[in-house]
Amino acid sequence: MKFFATVLPSFTVVLALALHVQAHASPVPMLGIKGTPQRNQVQRPSTSSPCGNVNIANTIDSSESVPLESDGTTLRLNITNYNAGGDGSRKVSVLVDPTGTGKDFVAANVTKNGDPAPKNNGADIVTIELPAGTKCTGGGKGNLCLLSVKSSAGFGGCTLASQLASSSSSTGSSCKSKGKKAKRSGDRRAVGTRAALAARGESLHQNPVF
């Protein structure tokens, strides 16, 4: 009886951890991965490692990117889950780093999100709006934005958005027409938000488990 009393709780913990490890979702494509990611390639983005254990500098120029719409700020991204239920949530929050370095993330707006508790494995196409005036400058061609994508269950990874030169130029011109004063005000708000969150040890992701 003592044997079962000792082994059974341990087995229950191991089983729970095993099931949790299999509960994944990720953006497709994903930084550092060719083709569709496998379940064991899904990352757990964190404040210190927004792309998990993927080396950004070594993979940014060899990874597939998703083109932004003609407005230069709208992105439609595939979110695929590898386990059903809440742990396989396809509902995501997104950060964007226009420099592609992984050091200058700000929040992006998800205007159409995925299923937070899918009944089966599958995919949703989510719609993401980058901040107005975003100019992607990352990668060797200087046209990539880096996105950190995290599901409400804490899984995800990074992906790349590519921006046409004409899109970034037209977007920039549109923003300039609104006046430099508005831009400076927006910059101060963005910096203030990042500073305040950093001071509280919080993440820009809207996800409480980040």
UniProtKB/TrEMBL annotation:
<feature type="region of interest" description="Disordered">
    <location>
        <begin position="165"/>
        <end position="210"/>
    </location>
</feature>
<dbReference type="Pfam" id="PF11327">
    <property type="entry name" value="Egh16-like"/>
</dbReference>
<feature type="signal peptide">
    <location>
        <begin position="1"/>
        <end position="25"/>
    </location>
</feature>
<keyword id="KW-0732">Signal</keyword>
<protein>
    <recommendedName>
        <fullName>GEgh 16 protein</fullName>
    </recommendedName>
</protein>
<feature type="compositionally biased region" description="Low complexity">
    <location>
        <begin position="165"/>
        <end position="176"/>
    </location>
</feature>
<dbReference type="InterPro" id="IPR021476">
    <property type="entry name" value="Egh16-like"/>
</dbReference>
